[in-house]
Each structure stands twice: as structure tokens, then as C-alpha cells.
Amino acid sequence: MTECNIMRMDEKIKSFSRFGDTGNGGITRFSLSEEAIQARNEFRSRMEAIGAKVVTDDMANMYATLSGNEDLPAIATGSHLDSVRKGGNYDGVLGVLTAMEVLETIVINKISHRHPITAVVWTNEEGARFEPAMMSSGVITGKFSKEKMLQSEAKDIPGYTFGEALKKSGMAGDEKNRLNAKDYAGLIELHIEQGPVLEYEGSDIGVVEGVCGMINYEFTFKGQADHAGTTPMPFRKDALYAAVKTIQYLHDELDLLDHRLVYTTGKISAHPNIHTIIPDEVKFTLDARHQDPEVLKQVLHIISKIPGTVEKCDVTYQEAWSRKTVSFTPELVDFVEKSAIQMGYSYKKMYSGPGHDAQFVIDMIPTAMIFVPSVDGHSHCELERTDVEHCCKGANVLLKTILMMDQI
Q1: Cα–Cα distance, 8 to 5 (Å, whole number)
Q2: Hey, is 350 helix, strand or coil?
Q3: Torsion over CA: 155, 157, 158, 163 (sign)
Q4: In terms of CB atoms within 10 Å, which of 6, 33, 245, 381 comes out highest?
Q5: What is the CA radius of gyration of the chain?
Q6: CB count, 10 Å around CB of 96?
Q7: Euclidean distance between CA atoms 56 and 353, whole angstroms
Q8: Cα distance between residue 92 and residue 95, in whole Å
Q9: What is the Cα–Cα distance from 210 to 333, expressed in whole angstroms?
Q10: Under 8 Å CB-to-CB from 11, ≥6 apart: which residues?
Q11: Alpha-carbon torsion 85, 89, 95, 97, what sign?
């Protein structure tokens, strides 16, 4: 049974970790930055060295393709090379590195394949420099307007737009090179789990069935600003206290729902934010995620029961944004599961909490994902790590899955 090479896998991880190295075990590699362009050039040179043809589309997505034996649509695999600030060396990039390793394994071992096989690098998946996340896959799948995305302003350079960065990078290619339904038979994206479940349960592989739906609400509490030292407690309209009571209510009620529900109060602001003044306005957000739309409806019902007044403060709330649950192509999910079984790896069927380019691509072509464990569940930080053994196991499942897809 042909397998990917763990030494090559390790070398790829270490080599790409140079681009944007923070010196503390992680990387800062914003989309279309100098560091990202260095990583992209390394991808290009390595893929061309094994005989792949590399092209880019108008959003700078990269496609490295090995020709197939027949005139058939290509099988795609890959992820992204950009990172968050002080991120890790695995989020996104591992999907690219395993795609590279699969193509290299096919070439070195002269594995016959009917379909062309393409390693993909998506542009600006993180949205850490230019919002929104998953920008370029979103444009080519019709989720976002290209014109609006070109005007997205950089967070690190005021007035500097994605369109300007795209032009300066020299990475933009022809729109005709975009991934599309006519020229591609399917896509498999490998990614780190970004959570602790696979490691905790001792599973080598996550067989990803889809991406969780989510809702995000913002709550506003209006009270009265008064002197912290002179206003008796019964006279107060403390917006922060009202917000805290509401957060506690939400936690108590949401904990009674399905154990797979995750929810977060990740952003909070208090006005005037001075220690001698009672807060008169407080805002916080609630992010809730679950694969079952009915559970998210229950979350909405719990939110709807919040009264208009809490602790003498007026309460309002509104949806900031949401997404529906995405289910991946059952046949490809089955291929991933069968590949793990044939390789003798333990696995768990699961849904992804974070979003990925694959969730957009599924609307265009058959799609599935593979997860590998994250040590201690760390991600989006410099502690992010996946053992090279698990990286290689993921690459092996990816290789076998692609070869199964090649037979159809």
C-alpha cells in the first residue's frame, strides 16, 4: 500500500514555518503580505519541480495540476497559506502541505490516475487583514461581490485595499482559471481540528460530515450613568449588572440543550468605562453553533424570552449575522471514512464548528473534509501544533480518498 512519506511531511512543515516566523513557535502571515508571497512562491516552485502546471485566477487563488490519463474533470485538494496574527503553523497551511505531499507521492510512486489532480491555495481565508474571511472562495462561488471585496480596507495599513494588495502582489491571474463546476469533479480539504475532541477521544482522523450552523446576536442594555460613590444601590440603573444577569440566564438555559451546542460571549463593551461611574450602556455578543437547525431554533426561543427590562435597564437585541448548517457530499464523506478504515486508523465522524472554504465550494462541486488532531486543542495561537505522525496519517487518508474518487 503506497503511503505518504513522514520525513517529507516534516520537512514541508518546517520549511513553510519560516515564512512569517514570529520567533515564538508561530507565524504572522497576512494575506498577500511579503511573507505570504514568499510561501506562495515556495508552493509554486515545489509543484513545478514535480511537473505540475501552476496557474492563478483573478482572486489570486493558486492551482497546481498534475495531468490525468483521461480527459476528465480535476480532483482538487488544498486550503490556505495565510494566518491570523501570531497564529500557528498548521491552520490552513497543513491542508496545502498535505495536498503537496499527495501530489509528490503520486509522482514519485508513478501512481496512475484518470483525473487531473489539483492542489489549491485559497486567498485570504482568515480575513485577518482584509475582511471577510473566506473572501476569495466566496467570490468564485458567488457568495461575495468581487467589486466590494476589492474595496475591503486593510486593518494594518489605513486606506490600503485588497484590490491594491492584489495588484501589488503580482499574483492575480485570469478569471478563466477559477475552480468551477465544469472542470472539477470534487474537492477534499484537510484541516486541523482546532479543538480538543479528537485528541481527547484518541482518534487519528476526523471524518467531517459538515459545518455547523451558527447565529450571532448583539444585546444592548441602557441604564443611567451616575456617581459610583453617592448613588444608593436601590436607586441604580446599572447596565453592566443587567448584562451580567442576562449572560447568566443565557448560560443556565443553554446548558440544558444538546451537549454539542457551543456558545460564547466573546465581545463586551461598557460605557463610559470609568471606574467611578455606573455604566449607562453595555453591549455584548452571543455566538451559538450547532449542526441541527432545531437546536438553534431553541436557542432563539431562549433569547426571545429575555424581557424588555432587566434590573430597571432597557434591553434590546438583534441578529448580527448567521449561517445555515452545511452538509458535505455523502459519497465523499463515505470515501474518507473507508480510507481511514483501510489505513487502520481510528476515526470520529463530526461536524466543524469553524468555517472553511469547503463550505462555500460545496455549493459548486461535491466536497468533503478531513480533520487531524490538534494538540491540547490549541489553534489561532503560537501553541498550535499537530504531531507529524498525525499529519502524515491525514495525508494518507487524503491520498486514498482522492484515489477512490479517481475511480468514478
Answers
A1: 5
A2: strand
A3: negative
A4: 33
A5: 23
A6: 27
A7: 29
A8: 5
A9: 9
A10: none
A11: positive
CA distance 286 to 321: 11
Domain boundaries, the chain: 6-212+325-405, 213-323
pLDDT in tens, 350-379: 999 999 999 999 999 999 999 999 999 999
* pLDDT tens track for 61-72: 999 999 999 999
Residue 122's SS3 state is strand
Which grid coordinates belong to 286?
A: 452571543
- 176 CB-near residues (< 8 Å, 6+ apart): 57
The CATH code of the domain at 213-323 is 3.30.70.360
Answer for the pair 185, 75: CB distance below 8 angstroms, yes or no.
yes
Helix residue ranges, H only, 54-212: 93-108, 135-140, 146-150, 162-169, 197-201
The rounded distance, in Å, linking the Cα atoms of 372 and 330 is 20
DSSP state of 24: S
* Secondary structure element (H or E) that encloses residue 368, with its range: strand 367-372
Residue with cell 440544558: 256
Write the DSSP string, 188-248: EEEEE--SSHHHHHT-SEEEEEEE-EEEEEEEEEE----BTTTS-GGG---HHHHHHHHHH
Low-confidence stretches of the chain (pLDDT beneath 50): none
